[in-house]
């Protein structure tokens, strides 16, 4: 009982990700920023909103049960949680509860020579997870369902992970430019979906090279508001030891908004955003203790 990391997508379950930034599908569909309505702004589509204090951080307060069972080289794992469905700094913001669950099967590889500074367990894992709860917005509760499945393969010096996720209910479109509002689509018919593939290898004891491609489609049910993010990330990590490393990422970013935009002004905003969305360079030092 207490504050836990909730059962969920693979990026959320790892103690530290291999990249500086999360994939768009994990960041925008699963770990999206809590928002509150902005009554001073109007919109033909969606409900304008501003970011609200708080962060999800893949955590919630509640009761969780979990266990793992090994049979030779096989391992079966489950986790189930009943929680508040609120952000990290809130105990509960409505009277409804959220449910989380994850099932995983793993094949554990025999111990190999500990040559590389790899911190992940050597295994092949298949997993599926599910989130369902109500998000409060503008004084009302709206359904938010998220689910996914995928696999992860780690065997020195290689790793390969792929995962698909989808959701329905409340969808939040981040603001396009500074001082622009978020747009919230709270009704149950709204959808989001995405996937990613991540591959990498250690080329020396200290150096790992990686490449990742991720796609996110928000509101594919509405051609006037459909938003697609595509990002290719190239990365290199240098490990000083298993507990500290420095990572350098370069992201090639692409953004498409609305196949049939609702107004000419909206179409112009889409074109302006495409022109202004540059690639991104990120560097991060991590010390684990």
Tell me about this structure.
The chain has a single domain, classed as Porin. The chain starts with a strand and ends with a strand. Strands 1-4-5-6-7-8-9-12-13-14-15-16 form a twelve-stranded antiparallel β-sheet, sandwiched between helices. 30% of the residues are buried. It is mainly β and 289 residues long. 8% of the residues lie in helices and 54% in strands.
Examine the coordinates and then state which fold CATH places here, giving the name of the CATH topology.
Answer: Porin
Please identify, by name, the CATH architecture.
Beta Barrel
Overall morphology: globular
Helix content: under 10%
Low-confidence runs of at least 5 consecutive residues: none
Number of self-contained structural domains: 1
Question: What is the subunit organization of this protein?
Answer: single chain
For the biggest β-sheet, the strand order reads 1-4-5-6-7-8-9-12-13-14-15-16
Major sheet characteristics: 12 strands, antiparallel
How large is the share of residues in beta strands?
over 45%
Tally of extended strands?
Answer: 16
- Output the structural class: mainly beta
Salient structural properties:
289 residues; mainly beta; Porin; 12-stranded antiparallel beta sheet; 16 strands; 8% helix; globular
């Amino acid at each position: 009982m207490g504050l836990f990391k909730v059962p969920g997508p693979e990026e959320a379950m790892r103690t530290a990700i291999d990249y500086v930034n999360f994939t768009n599908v994990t960041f925008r569909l699963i770990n999206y920023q809590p928002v509150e309505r902005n009554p001073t702004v109007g919109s033909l589509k969606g409900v304008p909103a501003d970011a609200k204090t708080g962060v999800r951080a893949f955590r919630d307060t509640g009761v969780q049960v979990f266990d793992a069972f090994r049979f030779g080289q096989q391992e079966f794992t489950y986790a189930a949680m009943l929680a508040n469905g609120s952000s990290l700094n809130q105990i509960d913001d409505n009277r409804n509860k959220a449910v989380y669950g994850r099932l995983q099967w793993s094949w554990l590889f025999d111990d190999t020579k500990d040559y590389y500074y790899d911190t992940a367990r050597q295994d092949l894992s298949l997993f599926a997870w599910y989130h369902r709860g109500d998000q409060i917005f503008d004084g009302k509760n709206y359904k938010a369902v998220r689910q996914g499945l995928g696999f992860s393969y780690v065997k020195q010096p290689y790793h390969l992970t792929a995962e698909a996720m989808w959701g329905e209910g409340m969808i939040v479109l981040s603001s396009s430019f500074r001082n622009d509002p978020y747009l919230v689509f709270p009704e149950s018919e709204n959808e989001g979906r995405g996937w990613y593939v991540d591959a990498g290898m250690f080329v020396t004891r200290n150096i790992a090279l990686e490449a990742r491609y991720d796609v996110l489609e928000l509101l594919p049910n509405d051609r006037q508001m459909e938003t697609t993010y595509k990002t290719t990330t190239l990365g290199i990590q240098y490990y000083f030891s298993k507990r500290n490393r420095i990572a350098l990422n370069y992201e090639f970013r692409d953004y498409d908004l609305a196949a049939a935009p609702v107004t000419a002004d909206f179409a112009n905003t889409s074109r302006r955003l495409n022109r202004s969305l540059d690639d991104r360079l990120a560097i991060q030092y991590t010390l684990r203790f």
